[in-house]
TrEMBL record:
Domain HTH crp-type: 158-231
Tagged with keyword Ligase: no
Primary localization class, coarse: cytoplasm
Domain called Cyclic nucleotide-binding: residue spans: 24-144
SMART domains (UniProt xref): cNMP (SM00100), HTH_CRP (SM00419)
Subunit structure, interactors included: Homodimer.
Pfam families the record matches: cNMP_binding, HTH_Crp_2
Database matches in CDD domains: CAP_ED
Record keywords, A-Z: Activator, Allosteric enzyme, c-di-GMP, DNA-binding, Repressor, Transcription, Transcription regulation, Virulence
Stated name of the protein: CRP-like protein Clp
InterPro entries documented for this protein: cNMP-bd_dom, cNMP-bd_dom_sf, Env_Response_Regulators, HTH_CRP, RmlC-like_jellyroll, WH-like_DNA-bd_sf, WH_DNA-bd_sf
Length: 241
């Protein structure tokens, strides 16, 4: 797998405040955090860049530093399934470390994006030297599984407005991957992608978001949604109109 883009010098000290906003990185032992950063490389690539494709070999662990990455798949007839939109400082690409298999989905940048990558060989060496680190890798996977289970339950049980409200809140909180107090008010997602995540038509998403905007719960921007009143959205997600 090759990614065309501008390689950037890694300023570990400057990155730490951003990375420490993430729950997973902040819980790693300090020596491990430093070794990961020592081995990491960063690149900035334009919108629409394919970072990896379903079936590719595992080349490392990724973290979004700026921008957004869409994780999903495309069917033979061109239909798109969007699993998530990954924003800073979320990590992804960890599944292949556990089963040794290939990439499970495609990862494409939505906008110009800067990402950090830790080579597979570096992480495997760290895990071999200190097997207790598998627990930390397991925690990263568990965060994703928890989000998936929650999403499946919501799709089965909740009406569209509640599902949309909950998904927006989940995205703002990094699907549980951000430390408390670090939720983002602006989310890099459009109506079509939001509908693809929730199996809801674009028209329904547009109608629901329009109602939320009229009530002052959010504002729609080009390629982004701004959460104006997260508490009110939470009440909608809990079933209160």
């Amino acid at each position: 797998m090759t990614v065309d883009g501008k390689r950037q010098n890694l300023d570990a000290a400057a990155l730490r405040p951003l990375l420490d906003r993430g729950r997973w990185f902040a819980t790693l032992p300090e020596p491990v955090r430093q070794r990961l950063l020592d081995a990491a490389t960063t690149r900035r690539v334009p919108a629409g860049t394919r970072l990896f494709t379903r079936g590719d070999a595992n080349d490392g662990l990724y973290c979004v530093l700026e921008g957004a990455v869409r994780v999903g798949a495309t069917s033979a007839d061109g239909r798109e399934a969007v699993l998530s939109v990954v924003e800073p400082p979320q990590w992804f690409g960890e599944i292949a470390f556990f089963d040794g298999g290939p990439r499970t989905h495609n990862a494409d940048t939505r906008v110009a994006t800067t990402f950090l990558r830790i080579p597979r060989e570096t992480l495997e060496k760290l895990l071999a030297e200190d097997p207790s680190l598998w627990r930390h890798m397991g925690a990263l996977v568990a965060e994703k599984i928890r989000a998936v289970f929650t999403g499946v339950e919501e799709m089965a049980l909740l009406p569209a407005p509640a599902r949309i409200a909950r998904r927006l809140l989940a995205m703002s909180e990094g699907y549980g991957m951000l430390r408390p107090g670090n939720a983002q008010r602006r989310i890099s997602v459009n109506q079509e992608q939001l509908g693809a995540m929730l199996s809801v038509t674009r028209q329904t998403v547009s109608e629901v978001l329009g109602e939320f905007e009229t009530r002052g719960l959010l504002k729609r921007h080009y390629g982004q949604i701004e959460l104006v009143d997260p508490d009110a959205l939470r009440r909608v997600g809990d079933g209160f109109p």
